[in-house]
Amino acid sequence: MKILIIDDNQNKIDQISGYLIHKFGSGTMVNQTGSINSAKSELDEGNYDVAIIDNSLPDDEGGSINTIGVPAEIIVSYIQRNYLDTKAIIMSDENEKDDQFLQATKVSYNVCRGVVRFGSENWRETLENYIKTEKEDE
Q: How far is CA 75 from CA 34, 51, 103, 129, 138, in A?
């Protein structure tokens, strides 16, 4: 399985990738990138099964995008237009509401498995379940 983590927080990336490799084995390939444009380029170069997308990425010049969810919506829309075999999982902060975020970003349920609230007690299990669902669909 090939997974792309799109996030600008190295500590979070390390936690997520370490957990995924531990859970799914050394055959799991995890790559990372930290901006919208680099995510699009990486998606174009690789054949990813899953993209885990931070919902508060900086813009490509390093500035912040103030509207939470806009970066994730841009990337999920890109996946939906170009890579329907890649499933997206949104990584939000634990204080955000899942349903409100999905509605606010108009994310397609065809591409997006759901939202994982990073930092919550069960973020690892939720992420694992979304990825297991992806593996079962293959």
A: 12, 9, 16, 22, 22
| Mean model confidence pLDDT for the chain | 80
What phi and psi, each to the nearest 5 degrees, are found at residue 88? -105, 145
Hey, which bits of the chain come out as E strands? Answer: 2-6, 29-33, 50-54, 87-93, 112-118
Output the CA torsion 132→134→135→137 (10° steps): 130
- Number of Cα atoms under 13 Å in the Cβ half of residue 62: 0
User: Among candidates 51, 70, 62, which has minimal Cα distance to 4?
Assistant: 51
Indicate the helix (H) or strand (E) that contains 78: helix 70-82
What is the average pLDDT across 91-109?
59
Residue type, 16: I
| Cα distance between the two ends of the chain | 10
Per-residue pLDDT tens over the stretch 4-62:
999 988 999 999 999 999 999 888 999 999 888 889 999 999 899 999 998 777 666 65
Q: How far apart are CA 13 and CA 33, in angstroms?
A: 9
Q: Which amino acid is present at 5?
A: I
